[in-house]
Amino acid sequence: MYKTVVFDLDGTLLNTLTDLADAGNRLCRKYGWPTHERQAYRYFVGNGIPKLVERLAPADQRTPAVLEAALADFKRDYGQHLRDTTAPRHPRNAGKAESERRAAGGVFQQGGCAGKRGR
User: Fold this and answer.
1) pTM (predicted TM-score)
2) Which tens digits make up the pLDDT trace of 62-94?
3) Is 8 designated active site?
């Protein structure tokens, strides 16, 4: 019997795209970079926040100093807004995991894990 189950929340069980896009566009405006349509962020996310920031920065601005500062700014801003619109991807299935756990007769240790270093 399994005692631990791990879920990938960011983008899989939780729809985080709008909050990420909004934070990304605030960062772009702050640095004078072009902003992007929300749907374009589907192609920017998926390899971590540092890679997202790198993808947002125009090629001629991707210096280590600029990327480091922009990453710090993004983390600060996103940290203040990461729950503005984030919601379960399929709200109608929100109780499904709990009912499946009970049906299996198991008790699982619950916790969260994000692929964000230093948090």
Assistant:
1) 0.71
2) 999 999 999 999 999 999 999 999 888 765 554
3) yes
Catalytic residue of the set 8, 73, 77, 84: 8
The CA–CA distances, whole Å, from 110 to 2, 33, 36 equal 12, 41, 36
Cβ atoms of residues 20 and 41 within 8 Å:
yes
What is the chain's length? 119
The answer to whether 20 touches 78, Cβ cutoff 8 Å, is yes
Is 119 strand, coil or helix?
Answer: coil
Helix (H, G, I), strand (E, B) or coil at 113: coil
Query: Where are the extended beta strands (E) located within the chain?
Result: 14-15, 87-88
The 8 Å CB, 24+ separation contacts for 33-40 are 33/57, 33/58, 33/61, 34/58
